[in-house]
Amino acid sequence: MSGADRQGGERNSGQQSGTSELSGHDAQRRRRGQKWRRVCAGFSATAGALASLCVCLSGPALAQREPGHSGPAKPASPASPTSPTSPTSPSSPALRTPAPASAPAGITLRDQEIASCRAGESTTWGDGRDRSAVSRPLRFVYRHDAAPAWFDAPQVLALAQRAVQAWSPCGVPASVQALPPRTSPAEGDIQIVWTDTGSRGQFGLANVPARTLSLGPGLFRLLRERNPRYPAEQTLQMVLSHEMGHFYGLMAHSRRCVDVMSYYDDGKGQRCTLRDPSAWGSVVEYRSMLPTACDLARCRALNGP
Predict the structure, then answer these.
(1) N-to-C CA span, the chain
(2) Which residue range is the domain that position 221 belongs to?
(3) What would the pLDDT profile of 265-286 be if each residue is shown by its tens digit?
(4) CATH number, domain containing residue 294
(5) Is the confidence at residue 45, as pLDDT, over 70?
(6) What residues have CB less than 8 Å from 77, skipping those under 6 apart?
(7) Which pLDDT tens digit goes with each residue over 98-118?
(8) Element (H or E) spanning 192, and its range?
(9) DSSP 65
């Protein structure tokens, strides 16, 4: 990790050598073809500098298929020691929470977590300094150039619009429009673009000062190669929702596993939290695709009535 990265407290999970313990493990998994985790990390706020970047890596959807297995990848076991994004056992300090009552029929415990935010649940990793939205209104513009061929422009635009709609209870006006080819964005626009350079080769990266939300075509191609039956639009929805959250002012990452603004572990043995540890593994990706009640509560607190 460079001196600047140390000062910024970055846990960069990109491809630069020696950036952190986390990135070292990710690089090894990439070389072995076994990287499946999804980790979001950002620059922390130090010396008055606001967090500005979020790097999103791959998720359980990228789990390696067994030899000869042509179907969807199997998620790693929640108890697997090789699954660094899996929460610790119920005896772990990070997960010592009372088990909730059984969910009503047809409603999962994960659904309950997404829909409600209890007192004390809206906590973060402390890896950034939250702030108000970068502007009012937020104007996102989508440029489809360099997108993977299996994503068409209306599809990606609809996912971006869905994310903005899901963030609307925060109270910050926002919109998403298509940016025609060879058209420059207006001053103040936030560009959503496809670029491995801008995304540092990851699924997504929000550069708040530059007003750029970069999507990484390279990892989406890897996702399609590894797990062609997995609905990649779900990963794209999650990435868009998460990275947009930084422009709404949520710079620190949530410690609730289910929050779209979360990441699963800090690379130092600390894990995200669940109301009921037994719910882990109930779905391939526990994190929500859209902002949860706790994500929205944080956003409202930052941006006022």
Answers:
(1) 40
(2) 3-303
(3) 988 899 999 999 999 888 989 9
(4) 3.40.390.10
(5) no
(6) 83, 86, 281
(7) 344 555 678 999 999 999 999
(8) strand 190-194
(9) P
